[in-house]
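The instructor's notes for this session suggest beginning with a concrete chain rather than abstract definitions. Hand out the sequence below and ask the class to guess, before any prediction is shown, which regions might be ordered.
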Amino acid sequence: MDIRYTLSMPEPQTHLFHVAIDLRGAKGSAVDLVMPVWTPGSYVVRDFARNVQDFDAGALRWKKVDKSRWRIFTNGRSTVRAEYRVWAFDLEVDQNHLDGEHGLFNGAGLFMYVDGQKHRPVALRVRPPRGWRVVTGLQGEGTRFTAPSYDVLVDCPTEIGTSPVRAFRVRGKAHRVLIHGANNWDEPRLLMHIRKIVQEAARLFGGLPYERYVFLYHAAVAGLGGLEHFNSTSMTLNPWAGRPAKAYERIVEVTAHEFFHLWNVKRIRPKALGPFDYEREVYTGLLWVCEGLTSYYDKLLCCRARLYDAKRYLKKIAEAIQAYREKPGRLRQSLAQASFDTWLWAYHSHPQFVNRAMSYYEKGALVGLSLDLEIRRRTRNRRSLDDVMRHLWRRVASKGLTVDEDAVPRIVEEAVGESPAEFFEKYVDGVDEIPFERFLRAAGLELEKEPIKTDGDAEPGDVPWLGVQTRNGPERLIVAAVTEGSPAYRDGLYPDDELVAFDGVRVDSQNFAGLVRDRRSGQKVAVTVFRRGRLIHAALTLGRKENVHWMIVPRRDAGALERSIYSSWLRHPWTPPCKGR
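After discussion, reveal the predicted structure:
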């Protein structure tokens, strides 16, 4: 069967893409066209069919047979043409967007596939408005492109517009960078840092598995996000994220994350992640490898590429450990189970998540850190997690093989010569507390608590604690979640309570933290809330929380092996501890 798509946008200000599908060589009495319900890399049911309108099959009769499937009755004809329009007004990495300035499409939410024919080559013709050009990772030039299968077609996000394209080469491979809608970004600096990230990743894996790669950045008020693809990535970031430095660091970290994915998930992948079933959820217990280890390497690549120094990197790790240890869910849900349950939790806010579950991004990154340091310690710095990733690439993915669900411990042992069975039993399949102090010691480091200071003076060692997460509501501050074991959990604040007053003082997003902090641990306070439309008065006793920052610092007694591990791990020279520590 010959399959050809035509995409046009005659009135971009209407936010409607026009799609035509021409089939030649159809057989049987009917052809089913199917719109995916999800897109790879974004593990949530999106039901893209809800954006489809004006479906038409010309003279042929058709009907919908389920929410995402259109059946065309061919009457024996071998040629079929179907047309429809797609509403596109979500500037998100897994959605589509079209307006008078540009168009961005992700194929899974735009192109229906012919049931049973996803494996066949396809052609795409784009008809952009006058003066607009097409930027994509698809094979082809100008407005005509091809893909060896539907999977490849929808794995190439495409920008159509007038934004400038920058280019550079690394190891002879072409890279294109497009930035749409940014306000204060330093483009030359960003291009330099992207190049360094590419160079560092290529050094780790020993090359680049593509001929060209496309980075698409879109400024969106909604904020931060990225989605990986086979030879490209699409990212949405705040229009003003170029400054301050901490915001800019998130840009380069997200870039490193999505670029690392071109190996880890797009090529190194579980069996469930390709070829894809686009009609229903797919399950794997290895998303902690796909996403968690990538989250470990995104910051590590930035450190190794000297986008920030080792001290800054270790500060980020310390902050992550501190945040992780404050979440009760870490002791309830294993990494493997968190991966499997992604369709229940990912992209859905839930008031019980902090108590019941764990992010495989967050914990996976910390387990990656721990596993890396443990391998280096046990092999006396002869092997590392880098060797595991190279082994997965060279011995598995580059040969077209996928990773079995229970194969990772065996692959680690093959790569480094040491069995990680106990480590996996405790920290991947189990919920044992991770002894970060022991793992960090291998690199001559230790965790320390430093009192928080204001204007150079240390604040009190303990501060009052309520134990709620909040979000802004249309009129009032809302309780989003209540941490198990906290004063709010014990004394009866509920998710979705609207905070009205704290000891008679009106609460809003600007003063709430200060109202808690200005009191004493153990003090009783009167909290007034609206709960399902009723005014409720609650008496709470504030708890106590350490008022500290966690830090990772060099140990004075670090030996030669530990200093060597530090240097080879971070690609920075060992820095002895400051005097007085």
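Then share the key points. The radius of gyration is 26 Å. Residues 187-205 form the longest helix (19 residues).
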